[in-house]
Specification:
rod-shaped; mainly alpha
């Protein structure tokens, strides 16, 4: 079982009420529903960070050295 930390979260009444309704419709607890939403947000942030890192790596990559080698291979097979 994962360990958990209790925390206090202040929500507007409308938001709290709607979350409770949705959680009930999905046959889950308020806590499990909120944890799922937060887990999804964290996953999206991690994926965005990876995408940004790979994009940056692609921009920083110097592939000029490979072009002549690729050209040589192509010319040998023509």
């Amino acid at each position: 079982m994962r360990s958990s930390i209790p925390c206090t979260l202040r929500l507007e009444v409308e938001i709290y009420t709607r979350i409770k309704e949705i959680a009930k419709e999905r046959h889950t607890s308020f806590t499990a529903f909120v944890q799922g939403i937060l887990a999804d947000v964290l996953k999206e942030e991690e994926q965005k960070a990876l995408y940004d890192a790979f994009s940056q790596a692609g921009e920083d990559a110097d592939v000029e050295f490979a072009l002549s080698a690729q050209r040589e291979v192509i010319e040998r097979h023509e």
